[in-house]
Write a structure and sequence with these properties.
The chain is of the alpha/beta class. 34% of the residues lie in helices and 18% in strands.
Length: 410
């Protein structure tokens, strides 16, 4: 089934997630409905001389229990998360293993950082413990495309398989790539999203040096916000051609109706309002939607001083008068910032919002910044008629990507 422009329609048939508030998509969503915060004192490694002691850690995750593939178990922690989330999404979609038309499937799973845990272990072995060699699997574990390769092997995918890397926009770009492949007829099915596992001593030292981490918590759009909070996890979607999904009797969860991307082309750290504005507008134009049709926007909302004000201003530019009526929230207030994986988890959040007619809150928002003066659904979620949602991802380097989801086709 095609649109008037000749492009095929793309739907979502599977969801999978691993986050600091849940080891699967449903658990994560239930935690959001309860307003649960996954940010806390770091427990998974020695803090040594760090002065930032909090993060959004995935706790209780055992690869031997939560990852069925022995091959993925030999990968890095970020591959474990990707394997777990992909398995959930693939099973949810009801696709055969191995996939029966392998060259008509894609697997695009990105990572902003790749195998950080493996890198740190290798360097400690070489430079502190003075070992003569690293683990033989070190190279394969650290590569940023390892997760996509692992998952592609697991499900017999022989079409386009690689990783995207665009910092905090990684998952959204991956989803957008698969969206374009499907609607242009290159493949019929795709696994799309990203995974991150950057919570190590060395990584925390590098983030500390940039002075962008909060020692207290992640409080998007709040007057008290003083930085973001690093987190880990994965978010994966199964995208599919509408006609293909209907023929096999799949349960369709949502339609991906629009995608926009842009670059600020200005600065590596300081955001520009024009880049986010143009990406949101492109996504709406791609979807053929007026701004007033969007009922919920999942903001990038990192809780940094510049990003939150910049995003607020960009939303006002795109949505005009509707901006004051638009329900907006940053679920990073609950999960922390999953970096490249954030867009995958937040896309799932948007889909769940349309399914259940419920908008998640921005927790910890007791006193908004006067410059952030829109409806950020403070502290408590709400029931709403949600037909169209938007998910924003804006990354270091000014790399912007936006998705628009709608209800399943009638």
């Amino acid at each position: 089934m095609t649109k008037a422009n000749g492009l095929r329609r793309v739907v979502v048939t599977g969801l999978g997630a691993v986050t600091p508030i849940g080891l699967d998509a449903n658990e994560t969503w239930s935690a959001m409905k309860a307003g649960k915060c996954g940010v806390g004192r770091i427990e998974n490694f020695d803090l040594e001389d760090l002065y930032i002691h909090i993060a959004g850690e995935v706790k209780g995750f055992d690869p031997a229990t939560h990852v069925s593939s022995r091959k993925v178990q030999y990968g890095d922690r970020y591959s474990w998360f990707a394997g777990r989330a992909a398995e959930e999404a693939w099973t949810h979609a009801g696709l055969p293993t191995p996939y029966d038309e392998p060259y008509r499937a894609a697997c695009i799973i990105g990572s902003g950082a790749g195998g950080h845990s493996t890198i740190e272990t290798a360097y400690r072995d070489l430079f502190i413990k003075k070992k003569k060699a690293t683990n033989p699997l070190t190279l394969l574990r650290i590569i940023g495309s390892s997760a996509s390769a692992h998952v592609g092997i697991e499900y017999g995918i022989k079409g386009p398989t690689f990783g995207t890397c665009s910092a905090c926009s990684t998952a959204t770009h991956a989803i957008g790539v698969v969206y374009d492949y499907i609607r242009n007829g290159l493949v019929d099915v795709g696994v799309a999203g990203a995974s991150e596992a950057v919570l190590t001593y060395g990584s925390m030292r590098t983030w500390q040096a940039m002075r962008v981490l909060s020692p207290e918590g992640c409080f998007p759009f709040s007057k008290k916000r003083n930085g973001t909070v690093l987190a880990e996890g994965a978010g994966i979607l199964i995208l599919e051609d509408l006609e293909h999904a209907q023929k096999r009797g799949a349960t369709i969860l949502a339609e991906l109706v629009g995608y926009g991307m842009s670059s600020d082309s200005k600065d590596m750290v300081n955001p520009d309002v024009e880049g986010p504005r143009s990406a949101m507008q492109m996504a709406l134009d791609d979807a053929g939607l007026e701004p007033s049709k969007v009922n919920y926007l999942n903001a990038h909302g990192t809780a940094t001083a510049l990003n939150d004000v910049n995003e607020t201003n960009a939303i006002k530019m795109v949505f005009g008068d509707h901006a004051k009526d638009l329900a907006i929230s940053s679920t990073k207030s609950m999960t922390g910032h999953l970096l490249g994986a954030g867009g995958g988890v937040e896309a799932i959040t948007c889909i769940k919002a349309t399914q259940e007619g419920w908008i998640p809150p921005t927790i910890g928002l007791d006193e908004p910044d006067p410059k952030c003066d829109l409806d950020y659904v403070p502290n408590v979620g709400r029931d709403a008629d949600v037909k169209y949602t938007m998910s924003n991802s804006f990354a270091f380097g000014g790399l912007n990507a936006v998705l628009v989801f709608g209800l399943p086709p009638a």
